[in-house]
Amino acid sequence: MIERIRHMIIKEFIQVLRDKRLRAIVFITPVMQLLLFGYAVTTDVNNIPTAVYDLDRSPESRELMRRFTSSGYFNIRYYPESRHAFQDLLDREKVICALQINRGFAKDLRKGLPADVQVIVDGTDSNTATIAADYAGRIIRTYTTNPGSRIPGTYGTIDLRARAWYNPDLRSRNYNLPGVIAIVIMLTCLLLTSMAVVREREIGTMEQLMVTPLTPLELMLGKTIPFAAIGFFDMALVTLTALFWFDIPVKGSILLLIVNTAIYLLSVLGIGLFISTISRTQQQALMATFLFYVPAVLLSGFIFPIENMPQVIQYITYLDPLRYFLVIIRGVFLKNSGIENLWPSMLPLLLLGLTVISISSFRFKKRLE
Q: What is d(CA 246, CA 259) in angstroms, rounded to the nearest whole number?
């Protein structure tokens, strides 16, 4: 049995490596997704185009502008001379944030009175607007309460110190790239597994395999084990690139990551096998794969928080293996989480994987018979 499975595995590797399209899926797709999410896809908001309408023209107002510029969040591009020009910059989308410093700003600060500063943000993109308004508010509050300020007598009585755990720099890259591992494994293994069996049927070699001494179990193992190995390879490739190229920390146990990847592969390979049993051509398998893959990513919490989804949709997400693996992999990468913290995600993922692989194996066996 082991010898027959070994030869079947070798055959699968040969087929994958000699096909240019499959080689691209295995080697190029993971790197492309990693670079895309590492450099292009980010929720960080930096260099916000900003205009400042300074009516006070005092050293204090210039110090406030300097702090906006030195924060790295704001790029002051315009200094309008009138209210009309100030509003026109927002209307023509030249700036996202506009700051108006009213007359008497410095005088009110020196007297310890509330000073008027207006911050206007373009709310077309609600996420960017919210973040920009929060950044501006923090800079202004820090300016008026920091003992290092040049304004005497305006120091606050509250010492507020905010700290972010697990991702202290608040870089979205640290949050996104671990998720790329889960997405790459799902996409690669789904495509390869779903198309492998259909390809045999299309080119007429399935009948030849069925008359060999291979049992349905051996044939299924021979078809899935190579793609499981490819899944581990892609996991290692993306992890090493994230670690050494993007400097993403891996604070948890690599062994725990490998074990959970194996559990995750049960679901992914099972779904790919199931797709292969309902498809007659490679085009059908490809379409069915993306019909599952796209909703799985959208409902996993990778892009949109699950808590913000309607209650009915939240229940559906419990059937998505990607949901659980994202929690696990981010916990391992960023939080140094152990089994005692991750078992609420590991257990459902394992049960889901065993269920899916069992149903798919039964259908695969019946299809061969």
A: 24
Residue 369's pLDDT band, with cuts at 50, 70 and 90, is low
DSSP letters, 202-219, are HHT-HHHHHTSS--HHHH
Nearest to 63, CA basis, from 154, 118, 140: 140
Question: 103-111: long-range contacts (C-beta < 8 A, 24 or more apart)?
Answer: 103/55, 103/56, 104/56, 105/55, 105/56, 105/58, 105/60, 105/61, 106/56, 106/58, 106/59, 106/60, 106/61, 109/60, 109/144, 109/151, 109/154, 110/151, 110/152, 110/153, 110/154
What one-character-per-residue DSSP string does 94-139 give?
S-SEEEEE-TTHHHHHHHTPPPPEEEEE-TTSHHHHHHHHHHHHHH
**Which residues neighbour 212 within 8 Å (Cβ) at sequence distance 6 or greater?**
4
How many Å apart are CA 135 and CA 148, to the nearest integer? 19
- What is the rounded CA–CA span in Å between residue 50 and residue 64? 13
What is the Cα–Cα distance from 182 to 260, expressed in whole angstroms? 11
How is residue 98 written in tokens?
């506009």
Q: Are 247 and 254 in contact (CB under 8 A)?
A: no
pTM: 0.69
CA atoms within 13 A on the CB side of 137: 8
Angle between helices 254-278 and 339-368 (to 10 degrees): 30
Distances (CA, A) of 266 to 11, 204, 216, 287: 22, 28, 18, 21
Q: Long-range pairs for 6-14 at CB < 8 Å and ≥24 separation?
A: 7/222, 8/214, 8/218, 8/219, 8/221, 8/222, 8/223, 9/222, 9/225, 9/226, 11/222, 12/196, 12/222, 12/223, 12/226, 12/227, 13/226
Residue in the block written with tokens 């920009």: 132
Question: What pLDDT digit, counting tens, does each position of 228-284 carry?
Answer: 888 888 888 888 888 888 888 788 888 999 999 999 998 998 898 888 888 888 888
Give the residue among 225, 196, 286, 270 at the shortest CA–CA distance from 15.
196
